[in-house]
Specification:
17 helices; 450 residues; pyruvate-formate lyase- activating enzyme; alpha/beta; 9-stranded mixed sheet
Length: 450
């Protein structure tokens, strides 16, 4: 149990480090031509591989906790035009980065929003036509999707299963009816159970649940209920996220009353109870907010030293290029980040005008690339080799309070997070975050660390 004093001391606003530099510190934005050059450079590597993320922003209702880029609509007539725009954007990349399309595609992930806002027919059209244009070895292909169990049916799962998808991530958040009501996401247990059973009977080999701790009115007894019911259904993976309160970005979060939100030690107890229950049931903690059964690929990747972290959290595989398609989608190459237009109308217009819909991005300097690799290593392995004596001295000085509190240590040239310090891993990463330390934000940018 972490002391209340340490929780109070280190529960401060810090980045989540799903990228480096973090998005608020992107500065040297690439032109579309520079982004395409970065992709072609990465694709020229002999053994290069790549992955695709497709952002489908539509949801029928607004979940008030959500921090994603969504479009709330019940008008399904827009499905077809959006799918065609995605495929047109993909054709632009096929024309401009032909070398990438000669390399094996390792991952295709559908995220949102709610990808199953699309009908089974439109999901099939989208994925069939994407895979038709790429090289796929199905023995090494990972097809996955995020779903809202309230909006997902057997036909949608079957359409994607037939195209090679074997992993599904279900939004659950909490099984308690009162919490569900407050976050505007009423989802009876049987809906989640039935969809889980259907996916497994169909042949999906990895089922993930997204849970959140720190939601309004959430108590220890409610959290126990949610975790125990999760264990009953035995998903292969669990993402247990801290509720990120960012009302300056997502105005719907202003609907929550401050007194209804567990914070500090009260919030951390929700995680520690969940940790105790999950590890007691055979799950392993992966990184800092994921759990997996020992036989799941995420767990194996941690043992084999290939665990990766990107904009979607922890993953079992890293590719040379992550190509993001769709409104607001973020792409990544070794030397560059790239984000699409955030508004659907702007995104569709630019794509249909023949453009890559560049909004912004960041060209990584040599220092950026070095620090990215260090932070990635630290976030996935819990230890990292410090570059030189000067950096060692700097890290020791910056982290001296955490070293004194027994949360991290510097052993020779290695920075290591200790067991008691794992909840504060993001805090420790700040020692390696050159951009943030040079220019600390003077307003709220990041959510609390816990």
């Amino acid at each position: 149990m972490i002391s209340k004093e340490l929780l109070k001391k280190y529960d401060t606003p810090v980045p989540r480090y799903t990228s480096y530099p973090t998005v608020p510190y992107w500065s040297d934005s690439p032109t579309t031509e520079e982004w395409i050059e970065a992709v072609n450079q990465a694709a020229s590597k002999k053994d290069a591989t790549w992955s695709i993320y497709v952002h489908i922003p539509f949801c029928e209702t607004l979940c008030t906790f959500c921090g994603c880029n969504t479009v709330i609509s019940r008008n399904h007539d827009k499905e077809g035009s959006y799918v065609e725009t995605l495929l047109t954007e993909f054709e632009h990349y096929q024309a401009k980065t032909p070398g990438l399309f000669d390399k094996p595609l390792r991952q295709l992930h559908l995220g949102g929003g709610t990808p199953t806002f699309l009908s089974a027919e439109n999901l099939k059209v989208l994925v069939e036509r994407l895979l038709l244009k790429v090289k796929v070895d199905h023995s090494q292909f990972d097809g996955s999707l995020e779903v809202d169990p309230r909006r997902t049916n057997k036909e949608q799962l079957k359409a994607l299963y037939d195209l090679g998808f074997r992993r599904v991530s279900m939004g659950v958040q909490d099984f308690n009816e009162e919490v569900q009501r407050l976050i505007n996401r009423v989802q009876p247990f049987d809906i989640t159970k039935n969809l889980t059973d259907q996916a497994r009977e169909m042949g999906y080999t990895s089922v993930n649940y997204d849970l959140i701790y720190g939601l309004p009115k959430q108590s220890l007894s409610m959290m126990r209920e949610t975790v125990e019911r999760t264990i009953e259904l035995r998903p292969d993976r669990i993402a247990l996220y801290s509720f990120a309160l960012v009302p300056w970005i997502k105005p719907q979060q202003r609907l929550f009353k401050d007194e209804d939100l567990p914070v500090g030690a009260e919030k951390r107890e929700l995680y520690e109870l969940s940790y105790e229950l999950l590890t007691g049931a055979g799950y392993r903690e992966i990184g800092m907010d994921h759990f997996a059964l020992p036989e799941d690929e995420l767990s194996k990747s941690m043992d084999q030293g290939r665990l990766h972290r990107n904009f979607m959290g922890y993953a079992e595989l890293r590719t040379d290029v992550l190509l993001g398609l769709g409104v607001s989608a973020i792409s990544e190459a070794p030397t560059c980040f790239h984000q699409n237009e955030k508004l659907v109308a702007n995104y569709q217009k630019r794509v249909l005008d023949g453009e890559i819909p560049t909004l912004r991005g960041h060209k990584l300097s040599q220092e950026d690339q070095q620090q990215r690799e260090m932070i990635l290593r630290f976030m996935t392995q819990g230890e990292v080799q410090i570059a030189d004596a000067a950096q060692k001295q700097d890290v020791e000085e910056f982290l001296s309070p955490m070293i004194r509190d027994g949360l991290v240590k510097v052993d020779g040239q290695k920075l290591i997070v200790l067991d008691q310090g794992r909840p504060f891993l993001r805090n420790a990463c700040m020692a390696l975050d050159v951009r943030l330390r040079k220019n600390k934000p003077d307003s709220k940018v990041f959510s609390q660390s816990l």
